[in-house]
Write a structure and sequence with these properties.
Distance between the termini: 41 Å
Helix content: 40-55%
Strand content: 5-15%
Shape: elongated
Length: 145
């Protein structure tokens, strides 16, 4: 679990160090602006931006019941972040599995990607898709009848 917070904590620490240095040199405006940028970067790369993660087995169970796709992701992945942002509110309808928190999820991703932990990996009806377009994922939520 601590692994998911390494990058956000690094951004926060660096921002604080830079802001302190700028404040000590008499530039509080620049310090505030840069601290805000670092805090935003930390927030975007944190697990807080993503819907609550569940375990891979629970996601598979829920997906079998409701037919919604499963998204395997990890914090700090720019492609996962792009998918999450571009899906907007629709992202809450997917089942999200953080592979850094769930070893079963990581194993499922490795099995789908020839041993690599390539994310985002989206599973629709048991079929994995590696780094699909957000528009395609959204279309899987609302299949045309």
């Amino acid at each position: 679990m601590t692994r998911t917070w390494v990058l956000p904590m690094l951004f926060g620490s660096c921002g604080l160090a830079v802001a302190t240095g700028l404040t000590l040199t008499g530039k509080p405006g620049a310090a505030t602006a840069l601290l805000l940028v670092f805090v935003l970067l930390a927030g975007v790369h944190s697990p807080l931006v993503f819907p609550g993660s569940i375990g891979a087995l629970e996601a598979q169970r829920r997906s079998a019941v409701d037919g919604r796709p499963i998204v395997f992701w990890r914090p700090g992945c720019k492609y996962c972040l792009r998918l999450r942002i571009r899906l907007g509110r629709s992202a809450r309808q997917l089942h999200w599995v953080d592979i850094w928190r769930d070893p079963t999820g990581a194993a499922a991703v490795r099995a789908a990607n020839g041993g690599n932990e390539t994310v985002p990996t989206v599973v629709v009806a048991g079929q994995p898709y590696i780094n699909p377009a957000p528009e395609w994922v959204r279309a899987q939520l609302y299949p045309s009848a």
